[in-house]
Amino acid sequence: MKKLSWSEREKEAWRPPEKLTVSEWADKNRVLDVKTSAEPGQWRTRRTPYLKEIMDAFTDPNVEDITIMASSQVGKTECMYNMLGYVIDQDPGPALMVLPRIEDARSISYDRVQPMIRLSSALSSHVSPISDDITKLEYQLDRMIMYFAGANSPAGLASRPVRYVFLDEIDKYPKFSGKEADPIKLATERQKTFWNKKTVKVSTPTTEDSYIFREYKKSDQSKYYVPCPHCGKYQVLYFSQIKWPDEETSGREIQEKRLAWYECHYCQKKINDNHKLQIMIKGVWCPEGAEIDNAGNVKDASHNKHRGFWINSLYSPWLTWSDIAKEFLDSKDYVELLMNFVNSWLAEIWEDKVEETTIDVIKELACDYDEGIVPDDVLVLTAGVDVQKGHFYYSIRGWGYCEESWLIRRARVESWFDIEEDLFNTRYKKIGSDEVLPVYMTCIDTGYNADEVYRFCRKWKDKAKAIKGQVSITSGRFYKSSKIDINSKTGAIIKNGLILWHIDVNHYKNKISRLVHSEDPKKWHIFRDPHREYLTQFTAEHKVLERRKGKPVREIWKLKKGSGANHYFDTEVYSVAAADISKILNIREENRVRVHKPVQRGTSRENWIRKREGAWI
Q1: Structure confidence by residue, pLDDT tens digits, 227-236
Q2: Long-range pairs of 176-181 with CB within 8 A, sequence gap ≥ 24
Q3: What is the value of pTM for the model shown?
């Protein structure tokens, strides 16, 4: 029997692929071109540690879609080319790369992809010796075919089936490809027959209705958390934490002298440029809704076939904090430059900001009284509670005449028992007298753990209202009520049952903003030396002009990028709503009546409100 003899080429064709991730493959086989790279030569993932998990998501069999919403100068495009190189060498299949225009597709093919293949021995071994097999828009490789197309060309998007689709700079795509549908939809429709398909979408963002932001919102919305070198707390890097000297300094001077630093969100210590590589290496990707412990372990991350990654230029190893500060200072006075800074440097969507309250403005509202003490002009107290997983935030506000108010207390507590003690079993002493006041009414948000909130409000139904925030109610109304206790047998509403109050949060945020910025007279007050956590959370939102299909629709309050939590702002909103629902905001000095009976320590609250003709309650 004649012995079979295999040629080296045949043996190579039958050899199984190496068990490599994309990052491992790139470290071994990717070479950067001197013409297009700031650091030509062998690829090193360690240089950009945040790209490792993005690349390796491509080799995760449970992941089908990868969305990368990123700024320029962070390596997002090279990351995508590494995935393409891995496909060619390790897991071949028909692939399509889509650029905004057909001209861009030709340019990328010739200037970026062909040099990448040529410089890598692993990739060049798959190129046919027949020169006609490689054109600007189509590569006939030994085990796969690669197509390039423009998003403006429906013919290039809707023809042959493909397993892999790479979509680059998708926010520059037209909304329609010729007379055809959405170009992203056209491209991904070609993957229907492949059970092991992969789709990669990459872009810097533009506006809220942009392609990349839409796709990122569908994903697990991961962000890269890095530890502070001083306190070890993990955090996302945001531009709001880049600081420089208070004195008037030019952007050029800041850049040349490297005067800027990053301030830790938790300990407020300086994180300098020389700390950056150290904290990047220890960084971890954390999906929306998951948590990170002090050791950098991600907890409660649910599986998602669509991985989404967001990262900005603050993580770039090629930029200093001072480079970024200079770019902002050079751009801040020009709308078109500022928009480019927000999109291309911060990787954030552009929003038309209408109104904003800063920490400095709130600090100026501090008065000469301590937390827990009630100023003499206060007539009645209300509170708001924001319910979180395993803890609560609350604030207590005292009200006087004509909507004037004072912050009395704010805190984070861990149990419903603490809420009872601080809000319902505690009386707050007035300055210079023995008079003490209880909290008259509290609004508690039902957005989280609604059943527990309902149970608590049934117990304290004369002092607590269950609320649900909405962007708007109906024209001319800012709150409405609905009965939610229903007889399980008859379906009838139970008399004197629990009421759920729907409040227009946008209206109450507007009211707070108006009171905060009132000057003659001042309406909104806080106690001396307010805690930084209260200040940052109270100023965590700003009002922006919301657009749909490019047209302005409404003004709405939204969380600022990088501002973190807004719990104390929410508690103040609920406290104002409690005052409004209880008609406390209607108290006017010209119709002055005694609206409360002083409660002495140790007495009950039963007779606290004196009901009389013409009173506000």
Answers
A1: 999 999 999 9
A2: 177/151, 177/152, 177/153, 178/152, 178/153, 178/154, 179/154, 180/154
A3: 0.71
